[in-house]
Design goal:
CATH class of the largest domain: Alpha Beta
Largest sheet: 9 strands, mixed
InterPro entries: AMP-bd_C (IPR025110), AMP-bd_C_sf (IPR045851), AMP-binding_CS (IPR020845), AMP-dep_synth/lig_dom (IPR000873), ANL_N_sf (IPR042099)
Helix content: 25-40%
Keywords: Ligase, Membrane, Transmembrane, Transmembrane helix
Pfam families: AMP-binding (PF00501), AMP-binding_C (PF13193)
Family: Belongs to the ATP-dependent AMP-binding enzyme family.
Distance between the termini: 41 Å
Length: 470
């Protein structure tokens, strides 16, 4: 491998510096950095017997626990290009992921040869070296499946050097170190670079808790004196509506990601705990370029200004850069960019526009540098020539008492082409009256943005990474 740096080195260095510190706490107990390194090295030695020094793609499929971390770093040390697979997918979905991303070996708990009597099983699918990844960069390390901005399935390739640049850039704001205690609630398969790898690199403690039990989450934060909660908007809402007295004063950062969080929820959380909720804007091809740490109390709807190593701008549809306070296509430039797409094979330079990665989001940049995301360009609803972004309507709907979650989308209309439609999930046993909800919306939305069709449903369809399917 043509590189002097390997992502595995992060773990090795943390184990050297913080050997007795706890790396991860999960349902099985605690694992120190020295113990984590020992487990990783043992598995890596076993994997190397199968990889035979070839550059192969390794799929790993484990739940939110120590085994995911062990598999991730062991695969990296053994020289594989690692692609995490979400453990809650069906077997047919997993098979499709492995096939579409040309995975050679599959490390999991269900199928293949059991490795040294552990939960690690290895299925050999093929042994063809990955020449495509090496065309994109000399030091490939991770693959993330994504539909990108075009809707067509792709595999995003990241390099060892890119990972190092990403976590260095993010930590200029997050300030993670060996005293940090991370409260972990998100799927590890979707959040592992500018999060898990960063935490391990800095010797932090990762405390895993799961489910949608707000009291359990709050209890975990209290018990372990969590300093960072990296979560979804739903977790923030669960905490903000708890009735019991709770001490979350140990939290230094509360970061909301995966999808937009409403200002109402952020204000309720701040009122209850005195802690601002920072929206973060992460994107697979770039990393974590935006975090709203400066204006998270006054303007919680924003995703923040660019971190020091990034530049943001908005452009019109022909590529002209627009001025502040203008709505346009969001582009990001900076360090740690992806190496390229694997399907079809596309080098990064062929994707960027004057160095900017075009995100597919419509946004505006304020005079204070804060970015506000208005919605996905491909999700925009055209109501008789008027533009409606589902996200802004969802914000209003989710502020209505008793609405747990809203999904807004375009529905066909024979006269105007498209109208605004919505699905609402009630909170608990709340009875939602559609006419009352529409009357409420009239106070905050222009007439063309009002939902014309509303359905009350038990749940809205989400992607595996926690985003609303539209």
């Amino acid at each position: 491998m043509n590189t002097t740096f390997n992502t595995y080195h992060f773990l090795r260095e943390s184990a050297r510096r913080f050997s007795d510190r706890i790396a991860i706490t999960d349902e099985s107990g605690h694992l120190t950095y020295a113990e984590l390194l020992r487990e990783v090295d043992q598995l890596a030695t076993e994997l190397q017997k199968y990889s035979e020094d070839k550059t192969l793609r390794l799929g790993i499929c484990y739940a939110n626990d120590r085994n995911f971390l062990i598999a991730l770093f062991a695969g990296v040390k053994a020289g594989y290009i690692v692609m995490p697979v979400f453990h809650e997918l069906t077997s047919s979905e997993i098979s499709a992921h492995l096939r579409e991303n040309k995975i050679a070996h599959f490390l999991n708990q269900e199928q293949g040869d059991r490795l040294y009597n552990t939960v690690f099983r290895l299925e050999i699918i093929h042994n063809r070296p990955d020449e495509e990844a090496l065309e994109l960069c000399p030091d490939p390390v991770f693959i993330r499946p994504t539909s990108g901005t075009t809707g067509k399935a792709k595999g995003v390739l990241m390099s060892h050097s890119g990972v190092k640049e990403r976590i260095t850039a993010a930590n200029k704001v997050l300030n993670i170190d060996e005293t940090s205690v991370i409260i972990w609630v998100l799927p590890m398969a979707f959040h592992f670079v500018v999060s898990l790898v960063l935490y391990v690199a800095k010797g932090a403690r990762i405390v895993v808790t799961g489910g949608l039990d707000g009291r359990k989450l709050a209890g975990t934060i209290e018990r372990y004196k969590g300093t960072l909660l990296y979560s979804s908007p739903l977790h923030i809402r669960l905490l903000s509506t708890l009735k019991e007295p709770i001490d979350l004063s140990s939290l230094q950062h509360v970061i909301s990601t995966t999808t937009a969080v409403s200002s109402t929820v952020c204000h309720e959380f701040y009122k209850k705990y005195g802690i601002g909720v920072s929206q973060a804007y992460g994107i697979i091809e770039v990393g974590l370029p935006l975090i709203n740490t400066l204006y998270n109390i006054e303007e919680p709807d924003d995703v923040g200004s660019a971190l020091p190593d990034y530049e943001v701008a908005v452009f019109d549809d022909v590529g002209n850069q627009l001025s502040e306070e203008t709505i346009g296509n969001l582009g990001i430039k900076g360090t740690g960019m992806f190496a390229g797409y694997l399907s079809p094979l596309t080098k990064r330079e062929m994707v960027l526009q004057n160095g900017f990665f075009m995100t597919g989001d419509i946004a505006t940049i304020k005079s204070n540098g804060n970015v506000r995301i208005l919605g996905r360009k491909k999700s925009m609803i055209n109501v008789g020539g008027n533009k409606v972004f589902p996200q802004e309507v969802e914000f209003i709907l989710e502020q209505y008492p008793g609405v747990l979650r809203a999904r807004v989308y375009a529905d066909h209309h024979p006269l105007v082409g498209e109208i605004v439609a919505a699905e609402l999930v009630p909170e608990g046993e709340t009875l939602l009256v559609v006419e009352d909800i529409i009357s409420y919306c009239r106070k905050y939305l222009a007439s063309f943005k009002l939902p014309q069709r509303i359905r009350i449903v038990e749940e809205v369809e989400m992607t595996a990474s926690g985003k609303i399917k539209r």
